[in-house]
Amino acid sequence: MKLSICTISFRHHLYSIDQLAHFAKAQGFQGIELWGVHAKNLADEPHYGADWLRSYGLETSMLSDYLPLEAPIAEMMAETEKLSSLATHWGTKKIRTFVGKKGSADTSEEERKELIARLRILCDYFESKGQDLLVETHPNTVTDNLPSTMQLLEETNHPSLRVNFDVLHIWESGINPIFAMKQLHPYISHFHFKNIASRAQLDVFSPNNVYAASGSREGMVPLFEGAVDYDEFLAAARSMEKIDASLEWFGANVKNVLTKDAQEVKKALQLVRI
User: Fold this and answer.
1) What's the predicted TM-score (pTM) here?
2) Is the pLDDT of residue 272 over 50?
3) Are 107 and 100 contacting, i.e. CB atoms less than 8 angstroms apart?
4) Whether 190 is catalytic
5) CA-based Rg of the chain, rounded to a whole angstrom?
6) Which of 38, 138, 190, 192 is catalytic?
7) Given a cut of 50, is residue 273 above it in pLDDT?
8) How do beta strands 3-6 and 31-35 pair?
């Protein structure tokens, strides 16, 4: 299992992409998950890309963005083409998005059908470019729980539609992440790892809070100190070592937490060389 840092973890920090690559290399990460807005803002400096990142011994594990599935098709496709081109430039075949802006229970049958139709259009395009579209398991989207996610995958029925499996959010939905991982195994192309001190504090990850510079970070804890049992999960995930994972940290002391969490993940996966 290759580990990546997420550039979104540094969204409120004054670090350059050069500094992030140096940090990732120094701490033994294998890749960088590039936030879409960061990739777009670096587009005017084309020397940054896959070749540049390889000079650090790193790869772009995923380009993470939010495709406008509800927008007019021309607008949706313009954004899709832009992200696809950026993904090619950065050498990744994985583009992450959310599906819908409401939870599955609040999404009507007609709304769901329209989202699936849009996903098929996007997947056809990404397939033509040799790329995959990863839908993230996330609250307040159609993939907010296991049954709805499985249904979406079956209804869309496209080889380029894959899953970014967010362990915490699966746990948040009330399903055992190990059970969900086994059910979704054929579709998973990436993991997001993060944790919380208690279920009562999950609101700290709501987008309005987590993306705000002044938002609360109460309850965000290192990976092995929270309510989700990552020792147990990673023991079960050893058979999926070929799937990449990103450490998604939104709290303080970013470099220290990521460094320690990466060391602990490698130990749990028995990947540390002694």
Assistant:
1) 0.95
2) no
3) yes
4) no
5) 18
6) 138
7) no
8) parallel
